[in-house]
Amino acid sequence: MFILPASLLLVACSGALEFSLILDQDAPGHKQNEAAVRALQKGDAERALQKLQKALKRHVTSAALQNSVGVTLMYLAKSRQTALKDKLQQAALHAFNRTVLLAGGSEGLGKGGKGRAKMQPRKGSDLEVALANQALAERYLEASRLNRLGIELDLQNRWEEAAALLREAQKAAPDDPLITSNLGTVIYKNATHRSSGWNE
Ligand SMILES: *[C@@H]1O[C@H](CO)[C@@H](O)[C@H](O)[C@H]1NC(C)=O
Ligand SMILES: *[C@@H]1O[C@H](CO)[C@@H](O)[C@H](O)[C@H]1NC(C)=O
Questions:
Q1: Residue 63 to residues 90, 104, 135, 156, 192, Cα–Cα distance (Å)
Q2: Lowest mean pLDDT among 40-44, 49-53, 111-115, 192-196
Q3: H helices present in 59-113, as ranges
Q4: How big, in percent rounded to 5, are the helix, strand and coil portions of the chain?
Q5: Where does the record locate the signal sequence feature (predicted)?
Q6: What is the pLDDT of residue 100?
Q7: Model confidence over 20-78: pLDDT tens digits?
Q8: How far is the CA of 200 from the centre of ligand 2 (A)?
Q9: Can you tell me the distance from the alpha carbon of 166 to that of 193, in angstroms, rounded to the nearest whole number?
Q10: Where along the chain do its domains lie?
Q11: Residue 107 Cβ contacting ligand 1 at under 6 Å
């Protein structure tokens, strides 16, 4: 297995998305996987996804391909607005979940996460990459959830509470421009509307 160096990933994801790829030279479908990653690095995520989906039809049990699907979906999610972003992130998490299973992990024992805590992947294994990507995708989904709640509070002119939620969202996804810009808006509204007595 070969994990792309972080600098390459940064290019692939035009930000600090720290998702890792599984590029096993001997795995079935490796050539298609590499081609897809090249498309992704050029910023053509749609084409990468097409290539991966085609390859997955032939190599249904490839953890590497499934993992690349997740990374590509997260890349697509990054530049999307709230509703579609959520859908893409859910789909990415689903792909990482499948990757974990294909890499020999188990689904975990429900919400308690006991199963996952017991899972000790070998260092540098496909499973380790899959679990890390799964955890990261969950974090980004949580950020999206907080962002949505923040927007709801903003619509009710509850800017302080909105700002608190958006700050948490920003902690979970520091490089998400949507969250950063929402936070800026809410802080601005809080400052201007308050000082003009708008909310009193
Ligand atoms: C992925 O797996 C996690 C933990 O095993 C679970 O909580 C989540 O609902 C799953 N999500 C999807 C979209 O499959
Ligand atoms: C909102 O405005 C109040 C009053 O001007 C200020 O004390 C508070 O720090 C502001 N909160 C945020 C999150 O900007």
A1: 18, 9, 16, 45, 51
A2: 111-115
A3: 63-78, 82-102
A4: 70, 0, 30
A5: 1-16
A6: 96
A7: 999 888 888 999 999 999 999 999 999 999 999 999 999 999 999 999 999 999 999 98
A8: 13
A9: 19
A10: 2-108+117-196
A11: yes
Structure tokens of 37? 């990653």
Q: Tell how far the Cα of 190 is from the centroid of ligand 2, in angstroms.
A: 6
CA 130 to CA 104: how far, in whole Å? 10
Residue 108 CB less than 6 A away from ligand 1: yes
Gap from CA of 38 to ligand 2 centroid (Å): 46
Task: Name the residue of 93, 106, 136 to mutate for ligand 1: max ligand atoms within 8 A of Cβ.
Answer: 93
Tokens 């920003």 appear where?
170
Report the alpha-carbon distance of residue 39 to residue 155 in Å, rounded: 39
Please determine, for residue 93, whether its predicted confidence score (pLDDT) is greater than 60. yes
Amino acid at 38: R
